[in-house]
Amino acid sequence: MRVLYATDGSADARAAGEWLSRFPLPASAEIVVLAVVTLPHSALDIPTVRAYYDGLRGAAAAVAEQARADLTRRWAASARVVEGEPREEISRLAEEWNADLVVVGARGLGAVKGWLLGSVSTAAVHHAPCPVLVVKGRPPGLRKAVIAVDGSPDSMRAARFFAALPLDPTLVIRLVAVAEPPRIPVADPELFAVPVPTALRESAGAWRTRLEGVLRDLETELRSKTANVEQSCILGNPAEEIIGAASEPQIDLVVVGARGHGTMMRLVLGSVSERVLHHAPCSVLVVKRRPRPAG
Length: 295
Prior knowledge:
The chain is α/β, with parallel strands linked by helices and 295 residues long. Helices cover 39% and strands 21% of the residues. It has a 10-stranded mixed β-sheet with strand order 3-2-1-4-5-10-9-6-7-8, with helices on both faces. Strand 4, helix 4 and strand 5 form a beta-alpha-beta unit. Helix 3 runs parallel beside helix 4 and helix 7 runs parallel beside helix 8. The longest helix has 27 residues. It is elongated.
């Protein structure tokens, strides 16, 4: 497994490194610690400018090397320093190196104590070609995780990506299946041959039955890793229900697919996964489908 950990030496990035050092990766995992140097433009090629640039490069190299040294206690790790724009270079290297996971810090708290993702972490989630772990705060370890599913291929891929990791058998996993309730049509209900309340109840029941089957299958898979599996099937607003589950005590991680199904089978990265990413109080693992090569 190839893991790209991006750091700039900030407190948020260091917290991501500490989180990564306790994350359940295979013993054979290979980690690249990436520091990106953005050199301010200067029209002057003079010794003082060159010395300033060298100082920035040296500082970045020191940050990357320290992080690499911390991670080599568990895995093979190397450090790399590149020049450019972090929002572009992280995704570029993840694609070039064929990374399986990108790890970044969320960066910052808002005025109302809600997480405000930085532009770098947001860009990584949107543009990296692989799953991205966005770390918020300094969790004491992975004690309890929420896996959100809606029955879509993307949410199932997210659940199975996480389930394939070497999880601690004491880890508590809460499977949360959420479907939006059917909407009441705007047309006159008398135009429908079937009474609207009956149709809505039948539709909701069908969704619940399907999601309960999905949960049973996932629970069977996960019980080979841990006996501590809980599940709940909810009819409600997916983003709000997932954020609510992620806000419960001792939840350290929420796992979501990059896309899912809305009421009309629409793709909903922005309306569900991104809302969870921005508003969940814990770290978020967004599992993305690797794009197919062109041609």
